[in-house]
Amino acid sequence: MLHYSHGKDILQNLINYDFFLAFRGGEDIFYFMPGLRYFSAFNNILFGETTYGYLILCTFIPFVIFKIFKKLINNKIAIILFISFIFIPIFENMGFGFFNYIWQFARHHAESLSILFLLYAFYLLISITKELDKNKPIFLLGLFLSMSVFLRPNFLPTTFIFFTLTFFILTFRRDYKNLILNILGYSLISISLIHNLYFGNSAILFTKA
């Protein structure tokens, strides 16, 4: 309820053209997860006083998982794992069960949205390792990694590994344009630090917690 309440306050500040308070997000220095409050405000703009936007995004998690396994293995195995993920959660203790993510959505926690961004970034990473396709949205790869951390800072180690691997792949290929785009996308990981410096005069990287 606190995350949702912060989102409502942000939206009200936007309506009142008080962008300073809207960006503040209810705290001078973040204690709770930073990003979900801003997503909640955006959700309320589109869907009113509901969480339908979050629910719709959660439905994409199985499809991203399907695309990942299709890239890594083959279409047949990907379909089997897709069905298992939704209906037969035999690996639910390892996080491979859709109801876990729906339960986190129902509690209005940030895990499900953060993991969606992380999974899609992983899919893009797999794509550039398997294909010499320079049209892949490399900026989105870096951006989704940073947004994943903005929602759940404890995903920093995982995202940093993905970012570093992407950095070396693009450097090896001398694809400097996409290298810069990837760095720019991931640089948004500093949003929480900028917020805490500006409002709380404290160099806390993510949250006090």
Describe the structure.
The chain is globular and about 50 Å long. 70% of the residues lie in helices and 0% in strands. The protein is an all-alpha fold and 209 residues long.
List strands and helices in order, with pairings.
Elements: H1 2-15, H2 19-24, H3 36-47, H4 52-58, H5 61-72, H6 75-87, H7 98-106, H8 111-130, H9 138-151, H10 156-172, H11 176-187, H12 191-200
Helix pairs in contact: 1-3, 5-6, 5-8, 8-9, 8-10, 9-10, 9-11, 10-11
Could you list some keywords that capture this structure?
209 residues, mainly alpha, 12 helices
Overall average residue pLDDT: 89
- The portion of residues forming beta strands comes to under 5%
Total number of helical segments?
A: 12
Global outline: globular
Number of E-type strands: 0
Give a short account of the largest sheet. Answer: none
Oligomeric assembly: single chain
Query: Rg, please?
Result: 18 Å
Class by SSE composition: mainly alpha
Query: Which blocks of ≥5 consecutive residues have pLDDT under 50?
Result: none
Summary, kept brief:
By secondary structure, the chain is mainly alpha-helical. The chain is 70% helix and 0% strand.
